[in-house]
Amino acid sequence: MKQRTRREGDHFHVPLWLDILGGLVEGWPELWMRLGEWETRTLEPRIEHVAIRRPIYIAGLARSGSTILLELLARHPEVATHRYRDFPMLHIPWFWNRFVDLAAAGPQAPRERAHRDGIRVTEESPEAFEEMIWMSMFPGLHDPKVCNVLDERHANSEFDSFYTDHLRKLLVVRSAPRYLAKGNYNVTRLRYLLKLFPDARFIIPIRGPVWHVASLMKQHALLTRAAAEMPRVQRYMRRAGHFEFGLDLHAVNVGDPEAVENIQRLWDRGREIEGWARYWSMIYSYIANALETTPELRNVVLVVRFEDMCDNPRESMIRILRHAELSEETLPAMAEKKIRLPAYYQLSFTPDQRRLIWECTNETASRFGYTDVRREHTAIV
């Protein structure tokens, strides 16, 4: 009997039932918002005294180390975060989690996530899903033709109420006092979130541009093939609010439409190395400018270089925990065991291609201390 050739899409497990439910949520966003409000009213006696104190946000360009930070911080007993089990019924976390608990067939065996980066997950693993809430209330949020930045000028009282209630419900579901979220797009909402939660803490991971570009290109190629082979993959990513890679790749517009058009043009013409390098520079330049021009952000934002985490994982984790105002617990020791240089692929850029990346990123990279190109080989994926 002839064996079927394993496809890239096979690594991205999207069951048919999940695809169908995801379509129901995507097709009727207003209905699910109303159901979420009904859930809130039903649970009011349980959540009325729950306060959102010092929420923690991990935000940055994809492949910067945000997932390993989420994986580690989510192990802290004081925090609650979204999990794979929350998708796609994110708008009704309490009722959906009760259903999942009743319908669960038993513990799952961990499987490597579709990113093929060695991180193994189950339905109980933390994941970035809150983007679904933002998309429900801010139409066109990922349109690269318009500025995607949200600040205090975009205040939306209906969103603020729904979002705050959603977090309160999640804290009850997870029985924890602090909210933790990973959301790459939240780098464009720092001021909005700080106005909503003045005691919030933000962690922004960054990595050297050469290896970061290599990782972005690898991930984009992998998920593009997977989505082409299995349309459910593309639908899952779109519904979950992940437009960082694949067939639905959208550049984040941080207020420079000309730069976004140029990046998109480079991607479309196959000049990916330059396109990703200029994208890296645009996003992190926006972050650097925001920190320089907004004094209130400087005290609540911690930029973490992933290379530093690799060199000194224990010390880096202690620094992160102190910034987040979390007790140290066992996470520094765990970071020493989990954070290491990757072994699943090698850098294949030519010297000219490396020079091109540095030409596109040097000015921004230097603002974050990336000035010694001779150390680029130590950067991590």
Q: What do these coordinates show?
A:
- The protein is an alpha/beta fold.
- It has a single domain, classed as Rossmann fold, CATH 3.40.50.300.
- The protein contains 16 helices and 7 strands.
- The strands form 2 sheets. A 5-stranded parallel β-sheet has the order 2-5-1-6-7. Strands 3-4 form a two-stranded antiparallel sheet.
- A hairpin with a 7-residue loop joins strand 3 and strand 4.
- Helix 2 packs across helix 6.
- It is globular.
- The relative contact order is 0.16.
- The N terminus and C terminus are likely disordered.
Characteristics of this structure?
globular, Rossmann fold, single chain, 5-stranded parallel sheet, transferase, disordered C terminus, P-loop_NTPase, transferase activity, 7 strands, 16 helices, Sulfotransferase
Shape: globular
CATH topology: Rossmann fold
Helix content: 40-55%
CATH class: Alpha Beta
Number of domains: 1
Secondary structure category: alpha/beta
The ordered H/E elements are HHEHEHEEHHEHEHHHHHEHHHH
CATH superfamily: P-loop containing nucleotide triphosphate hydrolases
DSSP summary, beta strand count: 7
In DSSP terms (H or I, runs of 4 or more residues), the helix count works out at: 16
